[in-house]
Amino acid sequence: MSEFLKAMAFRHACKAFDTEKQIPAEQFEQILEVARTSPSSFGMEPWRLIVVRKPALRKALKSACWNQNQITDCSELVILTTDNDTVRSGTPYVRKMFERRGLPSDAVDTYMGVYKNYLEPIECDEVLLENWTAKQCYIALANMMTYAATLEIDSCPIEGFDKEEVEAILDLEYGHSVAVLCAFGYRVNPQSPQKRLDVKQIIEYR
Ligand SMILES: Cc1cc2nc3c(=O)[nH]c(=O)nc-3n(C[C@H](O)[C@H](O)[C@H](O)COP(=O)(O)O)c2cc1C
Fold first, then answer.
1. Is the pLDDT of residue 1 over 90?
2. Is 155 in the pocket of ligand 1 (CB under 6 A)?
3. Is 155:144 a contact under the CB 8 Å cutoff?
4. Ligand 1 atom with least separation from CA of 192
């Protein structure tokens, strides 16, 4: 089996983390690097990651996250937030993101136009915009979890939270929102068998 498939088999949504075991700093930095280097639509990298280490903050977040023990018990808690306002079409941020490709200014203008056409029907609705930026976070999330599994580090993605409450606790800047959380650490219980639909139920060839 390839290393990648081994990691896919190792990864599960870890419910109980060993509170005594810390992820080595170098490995955690690599997990964050995997998020940083993940792909995003138009290369806009809307994600802004918050690593929560303060016990009091973890405790406050836990009650806003369905009281899930993973929030307080994991070794590292990553909150994938998004900066929705800077990625709106026409902002200096968007221009910079295209300019860094080393394109001539007329090509940058073309990109700005294509981006505007794409984003206008999305950015006119704050929820649609938040969902679009959140989608990018899920790519980073998946990459982080699978990479962590290659290091035999467990994880649990967390969508079970009260968004408004978590955003208030984090005191996010205007235009920022929370997409998803992820706890990383080490399991205390053996992994339960992976339950998945059969290939035939989910894949169709046309
Ligand atoms: C986006 C996302 C959000 C999730 N949120 C939670 C959560 O809040 N709490 C939890 O215990 N598991 C959560 N899960 C875990 C799923 O329930 C789990 O991945 C699924 O049941 C498959 O099990 P496995 O990952 O152990 O193979 C989440 C998974 C994903 C992908």
1. no
2. no
3. yes
4. 26
